[in-house]
Amino acid sequence: MISFHSLLPELAQREVRCVHLGGTPESAAKPALPADEYAYLEYYCNDLNCDCRRVFLEVVARGQPGKIFASIGYGWEKESFYRQRMPWAPDEAKGTVRGELDPLNEQSEFSEVFLDLFQRVVLDEPYRLRLRRHYKLFREELVRRQAAK
Length: 149
Description:
Elements: E1 2-3, H1 4-7, H2 9-15, E2 17-21, E3 36-44, E4 54-61, E5 64-75, H3 79-85, H4 92-98, E6 100-101, H5 111-122, H6 125-148
Antiparallel strand pairs: 1-3, 2-3, 3-4, 4-5, 5-6
Helix pairs in contact: 3-4
């Protein structure tokens, strides 16, 4: 996985999805979310032989550099696309298209809150289309750089 901003920094800076939160109240189930600007940073697979059509998102805060609040995997294709590519785990396709916390990467005490925010607010149709376009541009840039070697 390579960050989108490492290959296409100007576009990534212009088109990063951010949410501005004034904080959330603490409850028995969830700790209070600090007020801040949170960005969903995109990472894509750099294997040109793979066409997984997925993005890995890290949620970071402007006011807390270096802290990862959530690591989310998401795929924009239909469930059938991911079921076909993961025949050993067909039930995981539903999580892929909804967005899910990545079990192998860093999470925080707020990760469930950011996943819920992603699923309910962040992941609107324009953002789905943007991620698809970013994936295509990312792969084109990888090909261009490989050809320049």
